[in-house]
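Quick question: what would this complex look like in 3D?
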Amino acid sequence: MRRRVSPWQVAAVAVLVVLTVLYLFPFYWMVVTALKPLVEFYRFPPTLLPVHATVEPFLSVLFARGYLVLLRNSLVACLTAVATGMVVAMLIAYPVTRFPVPLAFRRGLMNWILSLRFLPPIVVVIPFFDIVRKLGLYDSLLSLVLLYTVFSLPLATWMLRGFLLEVPMEIEEAALVDGAGRFYAFFKILLPQLAPALLATGVITFSLAWSEFMFAFILSATPRSQTFPIGVASLVTQFEIIWNEMAAVGTIAAVVPILLLLFARRYVLVALTFGAVREKA
Amino acid sequence: MRHWTPYLLVAPPVLVLASLVIYPLLYNVSLSLRNYRTGEFVGLHNFARALDDPQFFASLRATAVYVSGTLVIEVVGGLALALLVHRTIRSGWARTLVYLLFLIPMVTPPIAAGVIARLIYTPTYGVLNVLLERVGLIRTDILWLSEPLTAMFAVISVDVWQWMPFVFLVCFAGLQAVPIDTAEAARVDGAGGWRLFRHIEYPYLRSLLLLVMVFRFTDTFRVFDHVQVLTGGGPGATTEFLSLYLYLIAFKFFNLSYAAALSLFVLFVTSVAFSVLSRYLGREVSE
């Protein structure tokens, strides 16, 4: 039954193999560099595997350089922003999908939220910097949390809207007919149904906030509010680069969203295209 | 009473959101009309200044090269790859593997991609030079990040590496909507690869391609992160794209007013791109 293999199939497999190498090797190289003592990094030619593998660069970065604090800042800022963002997104997505509001209102609102996705950060950060400084909020996590919340909203609102549309209205209506209040129907019936969807939304918006660089770069000055990506950048741009430590922070920064999103993989493409692509390829 | 519930729910978050977004934008307009140091109203002076600022035009040119370069490579490459894989790879697990492989670069923080690119392109110890020397393609190190052309290539390559997969995945998902019977029938009727694409597959991809291009255009137009750590705008100012130039004006020279004026230009270009998208989608998507 096996069909003859066409030259195009051979080409496709060849291209995919090359791409696999192009995509996995750079990651591999970063991780391997992070596991090498510095003398090995300078050895020529470089070795594909560390000769004396060590986790010293990771420990040195996290403890000696105190990057643990930056990790904590990132976690606090991102988790707060995600939690606030989800509540706000639900407050918008729920009425828009569950109440008979006029089409123009629904479209206008959702479109406006979508437009925030395209708002260039540099346009926001210039006035924000001035405002934040006058309010005495420069170099504080609060200003980052506010911005991360705003910038997580387009994705969160659109994702929740998509998920809400998939849950049949009848389930809640049945409860409403039975005399339950809106609150009861929402918290006891709708939310449990949405639990996996909420988790996916949280994971994806968290990863976006985790990767954010420009706002933190401009609005923070000390470890009081610097996030992890700022730590990464300062190791990359310093005068004499400590290569294995730079690779170690790069690895930590990349591993977090990659692991999270492999977990929420089914929703990533749907989320990034705002529902234009319905299911995973 | 019931009638108002949805509006009551929506109102607080929208008001807070609007104040967090619209107030800074108005603030930006006000900044742009003043002299930042004295606070004095100067009318359109900051906008006029842009017109004879050679650095602004240099940055605009660099951004144009970057945006068009990445956009062409990502769209053509991603689309071609999607067609190739769609027409030849049938096995389900192979497709899942491709999906997972291409998800990874998209979710990698740009700053980490910058680290990776540093490890690849750096002179003497960069792995790319070592590989090229090994294969015998070059004799002496290429200083990737210190020559204008290769530096531009390096920053573009990072974007392509991260986002060509996005174009691929979207196109690939779009191709799944093409009915197999129609494609088969066309093939039996003797339609070649190009005509199959032009008449059968392209109609299913048209709106997705527009969407992808608007996303990629607006994102590359405001690029900052990986360029900042990879070249910092250099060598000279050859990769000093708009966001980096604005950063320089606002936060190194502390002329927030001039930066605000230029940022309104960035906002304007992005808004035009978005309005194209929303108008088109408004027509396409019926709710």
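Answer marked as accepted. The domain at 44-281 of chain B is CATH 1.10.3720.10 (MetI-like fold).
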